[in-house]
Structures are given as C-alpha cells and as structure tokens.
Amino acid sequence: MAVGPGTLPEFFPVPGIRLGIASAGIKKPGRKDLVVFELAPGSRVAGIFTRNQFCAAPVTLSRRHLSLASPRYLLINTGNANAGTGAQGMEDAIACCRALADQASISMEEVLPFSTGVIGEPLPVTKIVNALPQALEAVSGDRWAEAASGIMTTDTRPKGASRQVEVNGRTVTISGISKGAGMIRPNMATMLGFIATDALIAPDLLQSLASGLGEKSFNRITIDGDTSTNDACMLMASGQYGGPEITADSPDLAALRDALEQVYLELAHAIVRDGEGATKFVTIDVSGAASQQEALDVAYTVAHSPLVKTALYASDPNWGRILAAVGRAGVSGLDLNALEIYLGDVCLVRHGGRAEDYSEERGQAVMDREEITIAIDLKRGDVRETVWTCDFSHNYVTINAEYRT
Amino acid sequence: MAVGPGTLPEFFPVPGIRLGIASAGIKKPGRKDLVVFELAPGSRVAGIFTRNQFCAAPVTLSRRHLSLASPRYLLINTGNANAGTGAQGMEDAIACCRALADQASISMEEVLPFSTGVIGEPLPVTKIVNALPQALEAVSGDRWAEAASGIMTTDTRPKGASRQVEVNGRTVTISGISKGAGMIRPNMATMLGFIATDALIAPDLLQSLASGLGEKSFNRITIDGDTSTNDACMLMASGQYGGPEITADSPDLAALRDALEQVYLELAHAIVRDGEGATKFVTIDVSGAASQQEALDVAYTVAHSPLVKTALYASDPNWGRILAAVGRAGVSGLDLNALEIYLGDVCLVRHGGRAEDYSEERGQAVMDREEITIAIDLKRGDVRETVWTCDFSHNYVTINAEYRT
C-alpha cells in the first residue's frame, strides 16, 4: 500500500557510532523493541523535538539531558510511549537512563531516552532494565538495518538512508533511520529520526544544521496534520572522520550540508510514503510568497484539506478544491486572479479559473501517477516553501477507526 | 446516513415575505433549481458571507447591492455556483439581477443573487431569465418547504426551522431554511442560510443580529474544515409584525434574540447532521479559555483532527488523540496537566492523563450514541466557545473521491 519501493539502502557504518538491539518484551514478546546508539567520547549531538504541548516524559528528559551533558547513549524503546503518564512517567524515564548509565559507567545525564508506542500505560522499567545487557553487549557499527526495524511501530516497512561525501579531502559518512506513519489507537506512531555522521562539526554549527535540516524535512511532512507527543529528530556527529573541525566558514560545508539534506529528506519522505493508507506521494510547492509564514499557511492548508486529499486519492485534477483551500489559507490581500497552479508541469489554474490551455488529458496523466507535484505560484514575493503529504483513502479511515474488540 | 430524524417543521408564513420556485433546467431538467424571496417594500436585510478569498461573483455582487439599496428580491439558483468564472461570471450575475429587476419594475441593485453548484462553468443566464416569470407568478407566503428543497444540492434532505415569539405584546414569526453538506467534485455544496422574520428591527441592530447569530451558529460548524466560495447567511426582516421598531434598548429584544438564535442553531446544526458520511453529531465545547481566539483554536483543532474524527466514527473514547489535538492547537503556555476533558458527563482526562475515576463502560456508553459532546475545560480563563462537527467515515471518502467516468 505504501508509495514507492521503499527498499533499505546498504548502510555505511559510521566511525564512532555503534548500535545495539534487544528484545525487552515491552509489548510483544520476542520483538526487537529496544535500540541503543553508543557514541564515542567526544561525539556531539543536536536535535529537534515535538512542539506539541502534550509532550511525553522522555522528550522532556532528553531535552534536559542534552542541555546538561554530551550524550554517550541514545536509548530507544518501542511498545510504550511513556506519554500521559504524569510524574511517574518521568521517574520511569529517569530510572531507565540511570540503569544504562550504571551499566556503562557514565552519568545519567549522558543518556537520552526516546519512547514510542502505547500511551497512558506505565513504562515497563524492569523489562527495559533487564534487557539492557543484551542491548549493550553486541553493539556494532553495522546494525543499522536491524535498528531501522527495531524502532518501527505502525510502520509497514523500515526506513533508512546512507551516503558518503568528500569533505576536506576525506570521506564523511552519513547514515540515518526514521519511523512514523500516523497515529493508531492506542499507539502513537511517533515520528523519530536518528542521523549519524563521523564529521567533526563545531557545536553551534551542529545545532544549526540539526534545526535547519530538520525544519525543512521532518517539519515539512504531514500525513494528517496531527503531531505526536514524542516526535524527535537527532543528529549525532562522532567527529572521527579524520579531518579538521567543520565550521560555518569551511569551504566544504556546502557539500556536507547537501549530503545531510539528502539523507534528511529521504528519511522524512519515507515517513510520508508509508503514511497510513497512502497511495500517493504529494509534493506541495508554494513559491512567489511574500513571507515564509504565508507560504507555509498556503502549503499546509492545501496539504490538510480533506477535499484535496480525497481528490488525490481519486486521481482527480480538482482545481476548485485546491483553489478553495488556497483561498481560505488566511493570506491577507491574496489576489486569486494573479496566482497560478500547476499539476506537474501542466498549468491548471490561471486568472482565477481553469487555465485556458489546460487539457483534461494532460492533467489526468499527472494525477494518475503515484508521485504528484502541486505547484502554487502566489506571484507576490520570492519566498518558497515545500511540504510533502499523502492522500486520504478508505484505508486511512479503516486503520484509524478500529473498533474495540 | 444523516444524523437524527431531520424532519422539516411546519413553517409559519412570514408576513411581508413571499417565495417563488421554478425549474430553469440549469443542470437537471425538471428539477426545481430557482428560488426567489420577494420582500415587501420597507423590508430590511443583513447578512454574512464567505471569508474565502476565492469568492464567487454572486457573493461579490450581493455584497455590493446590499450596500447600495434595500433588497426587494433574493434570487437563488442551484446547479451552477458561478464561481471561477472571472469577469464573465460577474456580467452573468448582473444580467440575471437586471432581468428580474425589469420584470418586477425595480432597480437591479435591489436584487441579491446567490448561486450554488458546479464551479468553473458559465452561468446559463438564458435559462434562468426564461424561468423568472414562473418563479415570480406564484409567489406565496407558504412555499417554505418547497424552497428548502429548491436550494438543495448535495444535501440528502431539506433543512428548515420555524418559530414564533411574543415581542411587544405581538406575535413575531421567524422561519428559515439552509443547505450545505460538504463539497463534491465538481460541485461546491455551498453553505446557505435564509432566515426571515416579520419583526421591525432597527437597521444597526439587524446587522448586529445577523453577524452575531451567524457567527455563533453558521460560523461555528465544520464538516471538514473546508469553506466554500459561495457561503452566505441572510436575515430578512419585513417589519410587518404590527408593533414598534425593536432596538438595542427594547425590553423584549432578549426574547427575540433567543428565538432567532434557536432558528439559526437548528439550521446550522442541520447542515452538520447532513454532513457527508456523517454518523455522529458532535459538540465540542471549550471553556475556561483566556481568550476567544484560544478557545476557537482548541475547538477547531479537535474538530478538524482526522484522528479524532475517525475515532468518533469508531465510537472510540480515544483520549490520547483528543489531548494530542489540544496540545497542538498553539495555545501559548497551556498546562496540559490542569485541563479536564469530559465525554458527556464522564471525566476522561485529568492531570495530563486518563482520569482515575474514568470507567471504560461509561465512556463507551457516551461514544456509542449518535450525539456526542466533548467538553474541554482549559482552566485558565472564563471564555467559552462551542463548535459543532461530525465524524470521518468511509462514506466521506467515497463521496469525495469520485472517480471520473
């Protein structure tokens, strides 16, 4: 049902980063539900977290620890989101971090916890703690594919990306995994991303990259407009690539940023492609905006419109619905007669109505494809933003309207 | 499929207001697709219109005429929305108004046009003009039920309300009809409301009532978040009730306002009950807000959340989805641990998680009903807002994902 082949790449191991997997039996016995990232000393980490105010204990704790220490471990569990668990949830998250810290002879603040899965149920701390030795004993640099599967909840397939790029005459490796497909009761299929590189990156630059790249990828995807309580996207840089520290002034920064951006985008897009019931991968490209805010308002209004999304499901080049969505996006003084809307390279709307040169055949050909681009040129500025989403199908409803048994 | 019985009331005729119906063959031959309201001289009219910037010619023209003259006729056609029709669309709307004005010996500005139906196709002016005599010849005060059917497009049933109230020792009558069920390609099932009364209401007060009552009813319903290009809700007051002019200081104003409010609410709710694929009528009541804006932000975020709406379809008391929607409503500094969420009178959420005294049985009993109230007390102020919506079902997708034949 997902869009596109979604094959995992061959992962390049990232020097300084090792992964471990375990079965803690958090929800399903025997399932790989615990993943650890082990970071060599000197590694730097930056990330972005959910903006949802209903925010799980692990998110609060990870944020806190990140501000206090350089992380040595990321501890990820599925099967339980430790969300909606109040004060007890915070204690439980702390207990897991402390247990790992004890086993690794580090301090608790050097562990970042991440949880995803059932909400409102207490984290099974004992099960997690008991599985830590298993997770830690066989850490290795080439367990990326297993980790990609290990962080899945409602995903139908694992998601990963891996590249190498020349920086300062040396090879830099970037590997990453992600998860997230929507929210299913009682699970919250949190959006998570973990990207690691052996580049040696100045701390401020690392945060700037994590924020900027995360913003333009993970924060530009939407399946149904809902954001989870546990979303996070972390960038880990071990610094072991063998070359000088990369700063904002480095000539090869552009090449590094481009490669990171490709990885971030692949991982973010993979989440959309695996969206619940998705049959279309849709790019909504808004250009000619007067500000970032209005570009995003337009893009998200179109991306969230149930009428546009059901039309996409129907492969229906319904310009009226797209224009109506643009018209209600709240852009002050928008001239509907000035803007243009394209489906792929076919002009659909011009002068406030269907383009005179539009042909049903050409428009239909675009909509029949699995990958569709809706391009909206507002013609009132030069700001551009892109958002990615999928369609609304019967399966979306089926998946999300589970009856209690 | 719609929610509740939806029976039309017995309509009270409104002195000074007569209705006419015709078949113009705009889209389907033989169908009643033209409705006129004839207003006695001295009648006053006020209304609210769509805020969608993609706004149809008739809306622009009605607004303009309303500012220039006291309307004598409302001219409503179905089968064609005259939207996305550019300059030609405006000429066509004018031509229809002019034709009616000629036949009634009045000026064009005294006619308010309203259109709903197919978009992007030229208004069949000749057909409409040719049907005007038929519409005008048998105008009568008791054709409300026919008119309710005459303005339908994608509605599955006609919608009306009618009441009487004592004002200044006299009987005031209020009758109204509405339409709107969502948007179907290529039609836009515009939301329209027409409420008439024989009360004699001071002009400023009339506008204030039309805006205020419209705001708290028609502007508080949402099926899928999409707003049409042709939405309008008009209040016509013939002034013929036999008593003194009602002003902001009249002692009986409260009774009149209450009666009008009941009619507005019935008509607006009827639209939600007939929402595409609706199986639930849902009241989302947000109280304890610090401002109207945040109350509405929370209410609409919950009302538009596909995950909440599919849970409603599944009769699933999914507190996590409701809380996640509240959490992303953008309310600055919201304390998730302070708020409370009720399903009917069953407390579902307290202290940031499922209420300790919540029982699955009681929650399920509420969700199994067709009429559901979700009450959210933000505990940070004293502002309250209510929004009404319906669920997302498989049928919603089916209706809106029509394949081209």
TrEMBL record, chains A, B:
Pathway field: Amino-acid biosynthesis; L-arginine biosynthesis; N(2)-acetyl-L-ornithine from L-glutamate: step 1/4; Amino-acid biosynthesis; L-arginine biosynthesis; L-ornithine and N-acetyl-L-glutamate from L-glutamate and N(2)-acetyl-L-ornithine (cyclic): step 1/1
Chain positions of site Cleavage: 189-190
InterPro entries the record matches: Arg_biosynth_ArgJ (IPR002813), ArgJ-like_dom_sf (IPR016117), ArgJ_beta_C (IPR042195)
Enzyme class at the top of the EC tree: transferase
Gene Ontology terms for molecular function: L-glutamate N-acetyltransferase activity; L-glutamate N-acetyltransferase activity, acting on acetyl-L-ornithine as donor
Keywords annotated in UniProt: Acyltransferase, Amino-acid biosynthesis, Arginine biosynthesis, Autocatalytic cleavage, Cytoplasm, Multifunctional enzyme, Transferase
Binding of substrate, residues: 153, 179, 190, 276, 400, 405
Keyword Cytoplasm: yes
GO BP, sorted A to Z: L-arginine biosynthetic process; ornithine biosynthetic process
CDD domains in the cross-refs: OAT
Any one GO cellular component localisation term in the record: cytoplasm
Record-annotated active site: 190
Catalytic activity: N(2)-acetyl-L-ornithine + L-glutamate = N-acetyl-L-glutamate + L-ornithine; L-glutamate + acetyl-CoA = N-acetyl-L-glutamate + CoA + H(+)
Subcellular location: Cytoplasm
Pfam entry (one): ArgJ
UniProt record similarity statement: Belongs to the ArgJ family.
UniProt function note: Catalyzes two activities which are involved in the cyclic version of arginine biosynthesis: the synthesis of N-acetylglutamate from glutamate and acetyl-CoA as the acetyl donor, and of ornithine by transacetylation between N(2)-acetylornithine and glutamate.
NCBIfam families according to UniProt: ArgJ, PRK05388.1
Record text on subunit structure and interactions: Heterotetramer of two alpha and two beta chains.
Name this polypeptide is given: Arginine biosynthesis bifunctional protein ArgJ
